[in-house]
Amino acid sequence: MFRYSEERFYEPLLKTMKNVLAEMESKQRNTMIKNITNVRGIKCWGAHIGVKSMRRDLALIYSEVPASAAAVFTQNQVVAEPIKVSRKHIADGKAQAIVVNAGNANACTGEQGLAGAEAMAETYASELGIDKDLVLVASTGIIGEPFPTDDIVEGIKENVDKLTNKSNAGAFVANAILTTDTFAKEGFIEFDVNGYEVNLGGIAKGSGMIHPNMGTMLAFLVTDVAIEPKLLKRLVKKAVDRSFNMITVDGDTSTNDMVVVLANGMAGNEVLTKEKDPGCKVFYENLENMMIHLAKLIVSDGEGSSKFVQYQVTHAPDELTARKLVRTISDSSLVKTAMFGRDPNWGRIICAAGNAGVPFDYENVDLYLGDEETQIQVLEKGVPQDYDRHYMKKLLRESHIYVKLNLNNGRATATGWGSDLTTDYVLFNSVYTT
């Protein structure tokens, strides 16, 4: 029987793909797009060290000065080893550097994995000449595989001297944290805080294992605003609840979720200490908007998805009730499959709302379905409305679908985002490791 070398069989394809990637990165270098490198004092780099076969797989982020730091971590009871290290290091509200590897989650790896996460922090700190407690560690990839500590440690040593604030480095680091993602997720904004120009940039990854309370998702935001650590922590938690905790793709919360914000104070503004400060309100608004931007990019890249669905609950008695309803509806497999099939089966939405664990009187609600421009009322105060089903199915063919539920019972509103559930998702995840 004829047998071939798998490596030789794929060699022409690999060469072609590498050439394409090199061309894309060359174009990125020549396109001056603002990113996290435009935040004062921030340097970064993204490298390929061989943990993943094709993509860059090591991300390095560094602030020239120690920064106020806040983070939100996974709520899964199974916690990856880098999460344990980062929780400990950020406890004092200070950090200066972040190191991330892709291709191996370093989860369910026991003492060997914990030693590997510690080695990442120690090596990066030593190379930078800073305290190891100022280094945060993250990993993403397959769970349960032995952690390639030696390869990653060597990769850190080889790439620290490449840290730079050049624009191409921002693109490199955004690509270096990806796994099944099909595109890098970035954002940058400038705004004024009490007369000082402030920059805020962010990168994120996520495509599958996305669920409220965060999914296999990493997000790193850096800003040069000066802010007190305890206040930053409160603002980050609030913003995460309204952004990353309002998205879902498949209902699975990962072991590695992490959202980190570093604020190094190099904008020169007077340190923000109170939420009532007008400057703090401006900063929070932009922080929340950036997180929502990154969260929506994650949903739009959902594994196998064909639809981006926005869910909104209005006139609820309080925001917590509205958020619970959005999260329950958006995570319903029956609702997701209806979105995939362009089926205006609004009963599934009402049924999901009734399972949210909050008071819900369907006889008092209005429900609307449609696309970005047109939403048709299908329920008014609990009474089904006549509508053109063929026209509705045409609206539901669009890639962006909108679901709006008016409770007519208060003034609070919540918005969330999800994808549909497709046959492609099942096929992709049935052979994830093989």
TrEMBL record:
Q: Where is this site: Involved in the stabilization of negative charge on the oxyanion by the formation of the oxyanion hole?
A: 140-141
- Alphabetical list of Gene3D superfamilies matching this protein: ArgJ beta chain, C-terminal domain, L-amino peptidase D-ALA esterase/amidase
Catalytic activity of the protein: L-glutamate + acetyl-CoA = N-acetyl-L-glutamate + CoA + H(+); N(2)-acetyl-L-ornithine + L-glutamate = N-acetyl-L-glutamate + L-ornithine
Which residues of this UniProt protein bind substrate?
179, 205, 216, 303, 429, 434
Q: Which InterPro entries match?
A: Arg_biosynth_ArgJ, ArgJ-like_dom_sf, ArgJ_beta_C
Q: Which terms does the record give in the GO molecular function aspect?
A: L-glutamate N-acetyltransferase activity; L-glutamate N-acetyltransferase activity, acting on acetyl-L-ornithine as donor
Which EC number(s) are documented for this chain?
Answer: 2.3.1.35, 2.3.1.1
Question: What does the record give as the active site?
Answer: 216
Keyword annotations of the record:
Acyltransferase, Amino-acid biosynthesis, Arginine biosynthesis, Autocatalytic cleavage, Cytoplasm, Multifunctional enzyme, Transferase
Instruction: Name the residues annotated as site: Cleavage.
Output: 215-216
Principal localisation: cytoplasm
The annotated pathway is: Amino-acid biosynthesis; L-arginine biosynthesis; N(2)-acetyl-L-ornithine from L-glutamate: step 1/4; Amino-acid biosynthesis; L-arginine biosynthesis; L-ornithine and N-acetyl-L-glutamate from L-glutamate and N(2)-acetyl-L-ornithine (cyclic): step 1/1
Q: Which GO terms describe its biological process?
A: L-arginine biosynthetic process; ornithine biosynthetic process
- Complex formation: Heterotetramer of two alpha and two beta chains.
Describe its function. Catalyzes two activities which are involved in the cyclic version of arginine biosynthesis: the synthesis of N-acetylglutamate from glutamate and acetyl-CoA as the acetyl donor, and of ornithine by transacetylation between N(2)-acetylornithine and glutamate.
Name the chain's protein: Arginine biosynthesis bifunctional protein ArgJ
Q: Which organism is it from?
A: Prolixibacter bellariivorans
Quote the gene name from the UniProt entry.
Answer: argJ
